[in-house]
Amino acid sequence: MKVNINGVSKAILAVWFEDNQVKLIDQRKIPETIEIYSAKNSDDIYYAIKNMVVRGAPAIGVTAAYGLAMASKNKENMEEAVKVISSSRPTAYDLFKAIDFMKANNFSESAAKRYALEITERSRKIGEYGNTLIQANDHILTHCNAGALAVVDWGTALAPMRMAHDAGKKIFVYVDETRPRLQGAKLTAWELQQEGIDYSIIADNAAGHFMKNKDINLAIVGADRIAANGDFANKIGTYEKAVLAKVNNIPFYVAAPGSTFDFSLKNGDGIPIEERDESEVLTVNNSRIGPVEGHARNPAFDVTPNEYVTAFITEYGIFRPGELKKLYSLIHEDLFMR
Question: Does the keyword section mention Transmembrane (predicted)?
Answer without folding.
Answer: no
